[in-house]
Amino acid sequence: MAVASVLVPNVFEPAPDSSVRFGGWLGHHHDVCVTGGLVGQDLEAVIKPYRDKVEIGNGDWRCEY
User: Fold this and answer.
1) Less Cβ crowding at N or C end of the chain, within 10 Å?
2) What pTM was estimated for this model as a whole?
3) Domain locations along the chain
């Protein structure tokens, strides 16, 4: 019985980041999320709870960060 040779190697290589483009409805909503949600936030206000680990209550850090 003959064994078939592999013509194309079975290797997964992700596409470079710069090759991925979103357009249309999805692209618009992605851009709104990034510019209005992520980039539009005050970075210090986002990081502060993770760094300080203080909460209102009995003083222990209980949130799921």
Assistant:
1) N
2) 0.41
3) 23-65
